[in-house]
Description:
The chain is α/β, with parallel strands linked by helices and about 190 residues long. The chain is about 40% helix and about 15% strand. The longest helix is centred in the N-terminal third of the chain and has 20 residues, at about 15-30.
Amino acid sequence: VFFGSARTNTKNEFYKSAQDLAFKFTKWNLSNFKDEHRYIVTTGGGPGIMEAANKGAREAGGRSVGLGISLPFESTNNKWITKGLNFVFHYFFMRKFWFIYKTKGIVLFPGGFGTLDELFDVLTLLQCKKITRKIPIILFGSKFWDGLINWERMISNNTISRSDLDLFVILDSTDEAFDYLTKHMQK
């Protein structure tokens, strides 16, 4: 699953990274699994980072899913989603369920409230053992993520444990992210 800002434009370095990572991941999937549907890039269906990931998957010759949400300020899901795999939800909770239900890995690119909501939702479910399987979680782009959330303050205030920081990694390159995802998803 790829999360990130809908406001990211096509010239942004993170747009290009999301597109590249989705491309690499899809090529790996198609060359390593007989069932080409084994892993499918999934996004929130909108523009920005979501569009980049859906576009990267399509350019690699694979399929991708868009799980959109009906919002007053976003028109439709992006054009790169595979036909028949383009869904629009009315309720956030149903959309979140489908994001997390089958996910094997999550990459969060810089984003706003929606991206942070998805991050904290999945971290809470893992921390509370409502999800017991291992899900590799990557926060992509240390120049965005470092200092955005004061994890040390949360630890010192005893609101999270130091071991909770093991639920995710912060990475800066598509090669690192690709290696981390493929290694941990296969476990």
